[in-house]
Amino acid sequence: MIAFILQRFSQAVLVVLTVGLIAFALFRFVGDPVNNMVGQDATLQEREALRENLGLNDPVYVQFGRFVMGAAQGELGISYRMGRPVSDLFAERLPATLELSLLSGFLALAFGIPMGVLAGVYPRRLSSRGFMLVSLFGISLPPFLVGILLIMIFSVMLSWLPSFGRGEVIGLGWWTTGMLTASGWKALILPSITLALFQMTLIMRLVRSQMLQVLRSDYVRFAHARGLIPLRVNFRHALKNAIVPIITVTGLQIGSIIAFAIITETVFQWPGMGLLFITAVQFGDIPVIAAYLLLVSVMFVLINLICDLLYFVVDPRLRAEFTQKQAA
């Protein structure tokens, strides 16, 4: 188990460094940040002095090396637009994004897996057909359109929920949360549903297809012949054997929720990491852009590492195969 973790961890470090290099090299040439930091009346000497202070005159590999060394120590550079440490900006925005992403992921799993199991076990029921109809809308409609429709119905027409912002938040040390206030929960409902809908439909369709395949197997029929209750057969035997591909897609979708919350945060003006990234792209704020992409890559790598460990725990065949490779 330790050897398996070390192998996956070494691969994860290599992936993070590669993504960091690509992100830094790609956005190194997105405009000139000095033009966004000084006025039109700035002289050439003032511009050159600012470039020297920011280290923009150094070679690209020197700037990237400085960025990696700083990131390893938790220092992600200084924002060109705001003149503040990027780590401080992330600390302010990260709670909002994680709060939205975790709630959206919970909704996607809490509704997607049971709906997929029921649609797979009882494919001809009216409820199952209703689930498939909902999934069709969830996959077809882009998130920004879903968000606009929800705002139009629940904010404009009914005036039940706010259309933007995070509501009232409470500080718990460096962490801020809106889940302890009524306005915070109201502000969280629409963006979390918008972000969860697409992921929920994908998870539901995957679970349904896997359940339909597993329910045709001989051991499931034998379990029914033994007189086991259907609930136990469906959730303990069938779902357990269909869980490996579900873990893969679910892990990727949860990572996508965090990475692609940009659209939802923009529609609802949610003060999270995604909105900060969009603003950074508009102003060519390279440290913020590179740090954000690096952070997203770290999240994806960690999620994939957790999925690999879950494979190792759930599937005994993987443990046996890895043991044989180590012995060879």
**Computed Rg:** 24 Å
The helical percent reads over 70%
Taken as a percent bin, the fraction of beta residues is under 5%
| Average of per-residue pLDDT values | 79
> How widely separated are the two ends?
16 Å
**Low-confidence blocks of residues:** none
> What is the topology, as strand order, of the major beta sheet?
1-2
- Biggest sheet character: 2 strands, antiparallel
What general form does the structure show?
globular
Category from helices, strands and their pairing: mainly alpha
Order of helices and strands: HHHHHHHEEHHHHHHHH
Number of helices: 15
**Strand tally:** 2
Keywords for this entry:
two-stranded antiparallel sheet, mainly alpha, 328 residues
What is shown here, in short?
It contains 15 helices and two strands.
Explain this structure to me?
This protein is mainly alpha-helical and 328 residues long. The mean pLDDT is 79. It has a two-stranded antiparallel sheet with strand order 1-2. Helices cover 76% and strands 2% of the residues. A hairpin with a 2-residue loop joins strand 1 and strand 2 (175-177). Helix 7 (143-157) crosses helix 8 (182-214), helix 11 packs antiparallel against helix 14 (286-314) and helix 12 crosses helix 13.
Q: Topology, please?
A:
Elements: H1 2-27, H2 33-37, H3 44-54, H4 60-72, H5 86-121, H6 126-140, H7 143-157, E1 170-172, E2 175-177, H8 182-214, H9 218-225, H10 230-241, H11 243-259, H12 261-267, H13 273-283, H14 286-314, H15 316-327
Antiparallel strand pairs: 1-2
